[in-house]
Every structure is written in structure tokens, then in C-alpha cells.
Amino acid sequence: MRRYQPQIKSLASAFLLGFVLLGCAAPPTTVEDLEEVDGKFLLRKTGEPYSGKVFAFFTREQKRWERSLLEGLPHGLEIRWNQSGTILQEMSWEKGKLREWLGNDKLFEQWFSHDKAGLLVAEHTGRPFTGVVRWLRSGGSKSSEASFIEGRKSGPFAMWHENGQEACRGSYRDGVRMPSNAWDLDGKPTLVNGSGWVSRYTKDGKESETTPYEAGILQGQLQRWHSNGIKKSEISYHDGKKHGVEKEWHDNGMLRWKRHWQSGHLHGSDTWWSSDGEVLSQTEHNSQANAVRD
Predict the structure, then answer these.
(1) What is the spatial distance between Cα 218 and Cα 223, in angstroms, rounded to a whole number?
(2) What average pLDDT does this structure show over 66-89?
(3) Cα torsion angle, 180, 183, 188, 190, sign
(4) Rounded to whole angstroms, how far apart are CA atoms 142 and 224?
(5) What residues make up the domain containing 247?
(6) Final residue of a domain: which of 84, 115, 131?
(7) pTM of the prediction?
């Protein structure tokens, strides 16, 4: 009978060698192993620009942060988690340039601001941002996303309802949002090829706003409601501009203001009331003022 003992010994030796190698694997590179010099991340021990992944941890087993570097510059995916393991922030870099950003409103305010011209500026560079921004709700679900070129919204955008259903999709052209398709909470189309309406809802599923469009342009009566179901406001649009009577109500149903528009210009009387019905102010406008476009 043939004996296989030498093969068994060889196999056992291979397993032992693999176990030893795994046990001797180098520990992960952490933020403490690096220092930032002139915008590049260098290894403290050698002073050389680092390429590879770098980590930060809550505990030995739980990651708090992960980033990829190439020759000392952020390159690739960067992710931050909270202690429950939920993603707080996600970014995509290209040789030190931020291309995509995802996070909630609070983090957005830390990373971006708007200058006097209304351009979106990245705080880490002080320059107008070019790339994609994706917003998260406090619970971690997607809220909306938009593309920017030199700080201006340009190109595709999308929005989602609280339940995760896609709400609206379209593009920005010359700074104007032009939706192409929209859906209600159940996924039923409300806007097709730019014509129909876009709806917003409260957290409990009540309709809070309907916005009418034709060929992607505001056309018709926009309506909003208070959380108690009482109408909040209504205004008509023609060719993307406010045109006609605009009204807004207090949440007790009393009229708050009534004003008139003509092709995007305030024109005629503009009256404001208190929640008790007392007239607070009355103003007359002419149509020579600058047009207001949403």
C-alpha cells in the first residue's frame, strides 16, 4: 500500500507557513502614521509621499474613516462612518481634486459655502466647485443630487421622496431647473417628458406642494399646503415666470399676503395681513423692477 505521509507533511507545512505569514501581516496605515506637508500626506518614518489606504478607527475592529492616497494626494474613495456603522460621508477624489461629495446638510455646510455671486465654493480650496453633490437626510437616505460646473448647477439632477422612491429627475440649463420625469410616493408617474407636475410630501405622506410644468418649464398654478392641511400659498406661472395673483395664508386659514405679478415683475398692489386679519402693510409696485425667476 502506498503511503502519503510526505504529502500530508508538505500540506501541513504550507498551512503553518500561511498562518505565520497572516499573523505577521503589517498593521494598517493610520492617520497617526502620516503628516501633511504642502498639501501632501507623507509617511512620518520616511518622509515619502504615501500611496495606499489610510484608516482611522473607533475600536480595533470598527473603522471610523477610510481614504485612498496616490503619491500623497487623495485619490479614489473616502468614507466616514458613525459608531453604528452608518455612512455619514462619502467622497471621490482624483489626484487631490474633489469630484463627488455625499453627506447631510450639516456636513455640507462644513465643506461648502456660497460666495456673493451665488457660486458654490469648496472650503478646502476656496474655489468654485466642479463635480457632483449628493445630499442625505438625517436618517441616511438620499434626498437629492446635482451637478456643478465652476460653482453653478449645470447638468443632471435628481430628488427622492422620504420613502426612498425617486421623486424627480431632469437637468439644469443656464441655471434653470428643468425636470423631465417625476413620480409620486407610490412610483406613479406625474411628469413625463417635462409635462405634468412635481409633488412634495410631508414625512407622514401628506402632499405639501405641487409644481406644474410644460416641456420642463414652470407653467400653471403652483400650490403649497401647511402641515395641518390648510392651503399655504398659490401662484400662477407663465413661461417660467410668475404671472397673476399670488396669495399666501397663515396656518389658521387667514390670508397673509396678496400680491400681483406681470411676466416675473411685481406689479400693482401688495398687501400683508396679520393672523388676526389686521392689515400690516400696503405697497404699490410697477413692472419696471427686475424680474424674479424661480
Answers:
(1) 12
(2) 95
(3) negative
(4) 23
(5) 219-288
(6) 84
(7) 0.79
